[in-house]
Amino acid sequence: MKNLIIVLILFVSVQQSKSQELETIILAADDASLLTQNYLNPAVKGLMYDMNGGWYTTAKTHKKFGFDITINANASFVPSKEQMFAFVPNDYTFLSLPNGERELNTLMSDNNSETVVDIKIPYDNGTYKVTSFDMPGGIANDLPINAVPTPMVQLGFGLPYKTDIKLRLLPSLNFDESVKANLIGIGLQHDLMQYFGPLEKLPLNVSILAAFTNMKVVYDIDDENNNDEVAVKNGETEFKMNTWTLQAIASLDFKIITFYGSVGYNNGKTTVKMKGKYILTYDVEDSNGNVIGTVDESIKDPINLDFKANGMRATIGTRFNIGFFKIFADYTLQEYNTASAGIAFSFR
Fold first, then answer.
1. Cβ contacts of residue 196 below 8 Å, gap of 6+?
2. Residue 10 pLDDT grade (very low, low, confident, very high; cuts 50, 70, 90)
3. How far apart are CA 185 and CA 1, in angstroms?
4. H helices of 86-215, where?
5. How many domains, in total, are found in the chain?
6. Can you tell me the distance from the alpha carbon of 108 to that of 87, in angstroms, rounded to the nearest whole number?
7. Less CB within 10 Å around the terminal CB: N or C of the chain?
8. Is the CB of residue 296 less than 8 Å from the CB of residue 277?
9. pLDDT in tens, 11-53
10. CB 74 within 8 A of CB 95
11. Name one Pfam family in it (predicted).
């Protein structure tokens, strides 16, 4: 899953990834889903906010058959309170932390230290299945800033009736022969100033934007360590994300500089599923804590998670115009504030 995590939060390489495998979290049995959701939550939410950003750098649409190619990066900042999550013992049936700890790192924490999680599951005739695993730390120190960054390439094309269609496309790609990813996004931006007669001659432009993005990532889980407590057969993790945004945009467009801003709404839903067959190995302890044997347990498709991100957004930005070459940057206020910057080549 470490390769999957890298793909989810960046689509560019994070040079140092986690050395441990998050797959061992399924040893937590019924507690595995909640623990995984709490750990991944800020990275997945940040990615959804990223995907709804960077769709425009002006409210002005292209002339008919005009086009632009935009290369940008969005970075959603994780609130400090979400770099950790509270470990509430009553929320978990079989888990405990050493030394009475009450917090664990999320994926976006700047603390990369592991935490030992102990598991004790009632078994048979007063005995228990027991084991432990290392909960991974965060990866924020591997990133330039503590934010979920996402690069994007986008094509805009002018249609009749002062409407632009915008396309984001990542064809099916393979990462290390174990991760397959594809992304498609489509947006429509429609000029409103055309309905206001003489006002259309002003440098002020107003438009509306509706955009949708779908991303799918499938990661084949390899059984890299035959001596650990988790054996994998036909394992894979599937990630599916759908986001949409609706925004009202205004801009002041001058020859050299453009000022733009917007208000709108975001919505996103993501599912993460761990599929396949897994053989889990536990020690068996008696009521006095003595190990009296081992037991194997087979489980199938152990994790199915849902993540959501939605709410209002407001953006302000600036673009410098050097002929057909544009340089832009903007900042969005939302649950995870997001910065965007990039370049564009725009014609007509």
1. none
2. very low
3. 25
4. none
5. 1
6. 16
7. C
8. no
9. 333 333 343 356 788 899 899 999 999 998 998 898 899 999 9
10. no
11. DUF6588
